[in-house]
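User: quick one, sequence for these tokens?
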């Protein structure tokens, strides 16, 4: 049957019927509540165990990473220390070489001065006091002598051959 509601024609199939109220849920029986509680506890235990494993793995990864960072830091520190030690060694070596060079230069100058003084002293002794030098040759039957005596600007040369007495 059709009805006119204002300007709209509504048929019986389109007429809204009053909806029945939703059924009231009964509380579940006691055993079912206990089963639900056990299941909830088990799910919680599984979640807690999963979270614990995840936390432990995260701790292990963090520990490993801290170890790697510490090793890297130690490696860098050791490299810096070795470089510093090498620089110090190079500086000490360079200072040692410069000191050695300066001392050697001073020694060579002093040696040269000593040689000059000795030359002048020998020349002076030769010309004021005199000296002699000579050589000899010894054979089975005789002695050959050759002497030079220097007295100031005078030179005296003596050459002699001395025979040995022969015993029979």
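Assistant:
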């Amino acid at each position: 049957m059709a009805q006119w509601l204002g300007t709209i024609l509504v048929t019986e199939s389109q007429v809204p019927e009053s909806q029945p109220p939703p059924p009231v849920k009964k509380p579940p029986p006691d055993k079912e509540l206990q089963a639900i509680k056990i299941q909830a506890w088990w799910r919680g235990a599984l979640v807690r165990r999963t979270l614990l494993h995840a936390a432990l793995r995260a701790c292990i990864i963090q520990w490993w990473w801290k170890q790697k960072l510490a090793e890297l830091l130690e490696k860098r520190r050791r490299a810096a220390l070795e470089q510093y030690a090498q620089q110090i060694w190079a500086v000490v070596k360079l200072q040692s070489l410069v000191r050695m060079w300066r001392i050697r230069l001073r020694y060579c100058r002093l040696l040269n001065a000593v040689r000059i003084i000795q030359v002048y002293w020998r020349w002076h002794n030769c010309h004021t006091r005199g000296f002699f030098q000579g050589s000899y040759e010894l054979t089975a039957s005789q002695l050959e002598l050759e002497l030079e005596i220097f007295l100031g600007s005078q030179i005296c040369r003596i050459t002699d051959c001395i025979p040995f007495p022969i015993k029979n």
